[in-house]
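User: Could you walk me through two proteins back to back? I'd like the raw sequence and the structure tokens for each, with a short line separating them so I can tell where one ends and the next begins.

Assistant: Of course. Protein one, sequence then structure:
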Amino acid sequence: MADAMEQLYQQVILDHSRSRHGAGEIEPFDAESFQVNPTCGDQVTLRVRLEHTAGAPTVAQVGWVGQGCSISQASLSVLNDLVTGQDIATVDRLNETFRELMHNRGKELGADKQDALEDAAAFVGVAKYPARIKCALLGWMALRDALAHALTAEPQEQTKETA
């Protein structure tokens, strides 16, 4: 049974590394973050656009360009699916839950947390390999940084250029 789950998890990671959800630059955007994993050279530039409604701001769109191993690329794809359309508090909880999974040494979290992570739960096996944890967390660090910039930046004035 454990082998079957491990194969399923590996397939989820491979699928996301091949079909990279959210890959590409977005315009306009509220903030961006460039992150690099100096251990292996994986890198990403992640942009985020927020939607400000009457309630809390939500992540309207995430776009990213990067290069690296299948783990970092798949993690970015899963991140995109999980956070798009979510309010900032939910995104923060997902980020913390994913970090907890990565630091849990290959052990699954409780069922409620595993369910909340959706496809990101497939990275449980990655946490067995300390050198790969940074690969999986790269996009999540970029998202946290970009959101911090977006939420603390002064609103940009839109100007029209005349020709």
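----
Protein two, same layout:
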Amino acid sequence: MKFTIDRGALLKALTHVQSVVERRNTIPILSNILMRADDGAVELSATDMDIAVVEKISADVSQQGATTVPAHTLFDIVRKLEDGSQIELGGGSEEGQMAMRSGRSTLKLATLASEDFPAMTDDDMPHSFSLEAAALRSLIDRTRFAISTEETRYYLNGIYLHAAEGDDGNAVLRAVATDGHRLARMEVPIPAGAEGIPGVIVPRKTVNELRKLIDETEDDIAVMMSDTKIRFAVDQIVLSSKLIDGTFPDYDRVIPEANDKFLEVSCNRFERAVDLVSTISTEKSRAIKLSLGANSLVLSATSPDAGSATEELEVEYDDGELEIGFNSRYLLDITQQIQGDKARFALSDAASPTLVKDLEDEKALYVLMPMRV
């Protein structure tokens, strides 16, 4: 194998594929990237056995072939080479080393046989549709903060993606995430071909890798899925992943419908006040108290070590006095997703879940469990 490639193009592709590779691997080949040179292009592949990413980039190929090289080492080297330079790579598995030249720099990397590199089986994907990059970006951004990190509840370690009926009766593609303390739900009009898709749980790592990729495109994303796997095609990149094998809970049961106390706040002022007052709250609970009265909201926090803090805001509220506590970090996570100027809280009492909506975007919905303060 031998080819010459622009440093910028190689660096961009390596940025995409090497992030899938785990830093610590008990299987040496999984620390490597597969490089396959053929017909004016080089294909880079990486996998952790759950996720696989493949990207094809143009190159001047003088000798076809394939080999695998250490992912993070190659990335670090290319990152440190001079911008605008050309990189020549040659050699392969047979020699046990790959030579790398750029300007006056010459390096050699250890290789492993390309035949030993695992390939994710190319399963049949019966469901396929295209989704605008902005729509997929919105589904991810408005929900991923609520993904659980508790490994014992593995079925909550991802975003639940499924076809559903919206509040207006129209079909929607809906994304939901919850960790048991808060829930985030976002939906977009259902794209053609997605009407009959199964409900699938896309793992957290896959969600994060996908989010990086769609940041660099405005083109439509091709989505293919089966009951066990999902695949996203973004420009010249294909990201494939196993799905979480579990049953996502019936989230509709935790979305309150009878909350009869309504609070409207300026999102920026509320977020700033929560952030300020929570500085005093204890590190473990991060609890703050919201005291509601006629068109008034007082936020407060106390800590035996740090002291106390209060801030009063003018708000739209006229449904009787109420005191309720929240984890300030969870509250900030939700308010940071609000795109409009105002957020609307639908409350019931100090022990019941609170519903939060963006007044300028009814497609997004959040639920937050209160805490005792």
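The chain has three domains: 2-116, 127-252, 255-368.

Let me know if you want the two compared in more detail.
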